[in-house]
Write a structure and sequence with these properties.
Leucine-rich repeat, LRR (right-handed beta-alpha superhelix), 13-stranded parallel beta sheet, elongated
Length: 595
């Protein structure tokens, strides 16, 4: 059941077979500690100064642990024996400095704990302690103490005498109040009091001006003391899962604060954070924040991570553009209706989350920006992500008031058809173009494959049918070529004077419908129609074709060629009426005659 293990410090400890919770539910008579082994560890600790009883199934500390220092100096006989051992090369006995009794079932510590005044580190986490003796305050050399995961409700007054502490962990206990003596810990650098029952903090906590990390998460704190801003060395402050409504004034005094966690509170305003120019990360998920004033945001000059999801934000501040160090922004699940240019110009942005917002408008200035300036792929992808949420909610793509257009639910990977017909469009919808541009950016370098695209973009690139008929389109953007799997394209009843170049990059295209346009010629070059090896159907009725290239007759993959209604000089109308085979044979005959 027991396995011994060599610790880094040189001491020996036990590796328990069972967890503490399992241990406490079992019969203690069957899991009583092996006294001989524990005594061996105690004996070895006299030479190393380190006693590790981690996971030894102890319900109390052996009595000789408390007197381990006294045994060393009890009599002159011991001193004489130590001198002889030293001459034989046997290590001299030292005072106990580190005691680890974690992961046991210890219910209480004896008042004799005060005899271990040489201790610098005490680890008692994961036990069943309900209280501490007053005598613990006699351990004046302690610099580190861990009492987490116990059942302590009150810290004794003597505990606040440990003025040399640098590390203190009392998380996961039942503590309801901290005494004002907490201010005595002026040397403290790390303090974790998470998952207790605190409702307030004493003003004296501000005296801990060497503290670099303060963790107060998962309590019931409703208000922070004004003196908190005196902790000028503070680098990380964790206040999540409390009942905070506001922050104390002059938070900008915390000049070294890098990470602030405010998740799951009731905060409505972050204006007290103005001037916190050293802030690198701000997490304020699930609060009641309605706006971020520009004057506030512009002071966070070094901010890299900004998370404010699940709040009540109505707009993105325009001064966000000042924060050029931002790499990650989360505005998801707010009430934002418009995307501003400021987000598009964040040059170092890697992740942008704006899903779950009722976005209905993209700042017109974004579309006017030069493509080189909109370098953040995260911005483009998130625009599409947010727009798709809106489309899913409304089942409409509101490009025109006259004719709403249907956009499929790409995120659920169900649609292979996009229908933009009868929309009176002069250009493709900007959101649709943004999706194309986003794919181009994401797979632009050869190191990224199409398989690494976000799921909804992967679904987008798998589109098979695109219907753009009955609009006012004159050209198509090159970015549309990302639709590599497109098999059918309908551009009938538009204003095209030639087949757009992007069409020739649809390598899997089988059907091209281009009736009722203004097309004057067909390009059969290797980089044009000749590149479409799977094309079987071409319908170009009622255009302005006057002739067909002879080599079109050798395109054996074309089974249907409909060119009726064109002012053709060649081939003749009687040949056209006979159908595709006659047209293709006539073209081949003319080609051979020309040779």
């Amino acid at each position: 059941m027991f396995k011994t293990k060599k610790m880094a410090s040189g001491s020996i400890g036990f590796s328990p077979k069972y967890s503490r919770s399992t241990l406490m539910s079992l019969n203690p008579l069957k899991l009583s500690p092996r006294t001989d082994r524990v005594q061996t560890l105690i004996h070895q600790a006299r030479q190393s100064g380190v006693l590790n009883l981690n996971g030894c199934y102890l319900q109390s500390l052996p009595e000789n642990v408390y007197s381990i220092n006294q045994l060393r100096i009890r009599s002159g006989v011991v001193r004489t024996k130590a001198k002889k051992n030293s001459q034989r090369g046997v290590p001299a006995e030292v005072m106990l400095q580190k005691l680890d009794v974690s992961s046991n079932c210890v219910i209480e510590l004896s008042s004799d704990i005060g005899k271990l005044d040489s201790l610098t580190s005490l680890s008692m986490q994961s036990n069943a302690l309900t209280k501490l003796p007053e005598e613990i305050g006699q351990l004046m050399n302690l610099t580190r103490i861990n009492l987490s995961q116990n059942k302590i409700a009150v810290l004794p007054l003597g505990f606040y005498s440990l003025i040399n502490l640098r590390y203190l962990n009392i998380s996961y206990n039942l503590i309801e109040e901290l005494n004002r003596g907490i201010g005595n810990f002026t040397a403290l650098e790390f303090f974790d009091c998470a998952n207790n029952r605190l409702s307030s903090l004493p003003n004296s906590i501000g005296y801990m001006d060497r503290l670099t990390k303060l963790v107060l998460s998962s309590n019931n704190i409703g208000e922070l003391p004004k003196t908190l801003v005196n902790m000028v060395s503070l680098q990380k402050l964790d206040l999540q899962h409390n009942e905070l409504i506001s922050l104390p004034k002059n938070m900008n005094h915390l000049r070294n604060l890098h990470v602030l966690s405010l998740q799951d509170n009731k905060i409505m305003d972050l204006s007290e954070l103005a001037g916190c120019d050293s802030l690198l990360e701000l997490h304020a998920d699930r609060n009641k924040i309605k706006r971020l004033p520009n004057k506030l945001v512009s002071t966070w000059t070094h901010l890299k991570v900004l998370h404010i999801p699940f709040n009540r934000l109505m707009e993105i501040p325009s001064d966000l553009i000042v924060l050029q160090s931002l790499t990650e922004v989360d505005f998801s699940f707010n009430t934002i209706t418009k995307l501003s240019t400021s987000v598009a110009l964040l040059q170092n942005l890697i992740k942008l989350y704006i899903t779950g917002n009722p976005i209905r408008q993209i700042d017109t200035n974004i579309n006017a920006l030069e493509p080189a300036k909109v370098t953040s792929t995260a911005f483009k992808a998130s625009i599409i992500d947010a727009r798709i949420d809106h489309w899913n909610d409304s089942n409409q793509f509101c490009t025109t008031k006259r004719s709403p257009l249907c956009l499929p639910n790409f995120r659920e990977h169900r649609s292979e058809v996009v229908n933009f017909s009868n929309g009176s469009l002069t250009n493709l919808p900007c959101e649709f173009q943004f999706m194309c541009i986003c794919v181009v950016d994401l797979i632009g370098d050869k190191t990224r494959s199409r398989a690494t695209l976000p799921p909804f973009l992967t679904s987008f690139t798998n589109l098979m049918i695109l219907n753009l008929s009955n609009n006012y389109l004159e050209n198509l953007p090159q970015e549309l070529a990302v639709l590599k799997n497109l098999t059918e394209l309908n551009i009938s009843q538009n204003k095209f004077q030639y087949i757009p170049n992007c069409v020739y990059r649809f390598k899997n295209l089988t059907v091209l419908l281009a009736n009722d346009n203004r097309i004057k010629m067909i390009d059969t070059g290797d980089q044009a129609l000749g590149a479409l090896k799977h094309l079987t159907t071409i319908k170009m009725r009622y255009n302005r074709l006057t002739s067909l290239p002879f080599n079109l007759g050798y395109f054996t993959n074309i089974k249907t060629l409909d060119i009726t209604g064109n002012p053709l000089d060649f081939p003749k109308q009687r040949t056209i009426k006979k159908g595709t085979k006659a047209i293709m044979a006539n073209l081949r005959y003319r080609s051979e005659c020309a040779v």
